[in-house]
TrEMBL record:
It comes from the Bacteria. Residues 41-59 have a biased composition (Low complexity). It comes from Trinickia soli. This is Stress-response A/B barrel domain-containing protein. Residues 1-37 form the signal peptide. Residues 41-72 are annotated as: Disordered. Residues 75-180 form the Stress-response A/B barrel domain. Keywords: Signal.
């Protein structure tokens, strides 16, 4: 009988605590991204939702409260290089330098690294008159960073600034960089 009474008391306590626990969980779920941003120094910027989730007057079309900013999302950093010397030896040298100085093991927060060359022999259908297939590059590097902070650290890293660029730039004719995030 005493066990049954204790069981009923526990059930009653849980019923009384459930609304408070639910409220606490909801508060944690919504406050955690804000607290994380504040502790890491990432703050909402123009064009992003504010800490209250208010996206009005920011240009942000997202309706989700506390949507991550571009700084919170993985950064896709793509580099397309047109070389002065288009020979296979020069292309292989540029690929080797990229692999040596830009690869994942060199940069904290870098999630992936791929070194590629121009794909040739593909048939491109002209579905629209303004379609332009880029073919004026020799080498491309595709890097993915965990967030903008990791990207920013890579930009000023020793391997990038004092090794890769100085050892590569003498053969660069044109360098194009495309940075993007998932929406």
């Amino acid at each position: 009988m005493a066990e049954r009474l204790m069981s009923l008391q526990k059930e009653e306590s849980m019923r009384r605590l459930a609304p408070a626990l639910l409220l606490s969980l909801l508060t944690l779920a919504f406050a955690s991204p804000i607290a994380l941003a504040q502790t890491t120094g990432d703050t909402p910027t123009a064009g992003t939702a504010s800490a209250t989730g208010d996206a009005s007057n920011t240009g942000d079309t997202s309706t989700a409260p506390h949507a991550p900013t571009s700084r919170d999302r993985p950064i896709y950093h793509d580099i397309y290089i047109t070389l002065k010397d288009h020979s296979q030896i020069a292309v292989q040298k540029q690929l080797r330098l990229g692999k040596e100085y830009l690869s994942v093991h060199k940069h904290p927060g870098e999630l992936s690294f791929t070194a590629t060359v121009l794909a040739t022999g593909l048939k491109r259908h002209q579905q629209v008159p303004y379609l332009h297939n880029e073919t004026d590059f020799d080498v491309a590097f595709h890097l993915v960073f965990a967030n903008a902070r990791a990207h920013d650290q890579y930009q000023v890293s020793y391997a990038h600034v004092h090794e890769f660029i100085p050892k590569s730039k003498s053969n660069w004719q044109e360098l194009r960089v495309f940075d993007s995030v998932k929406r």
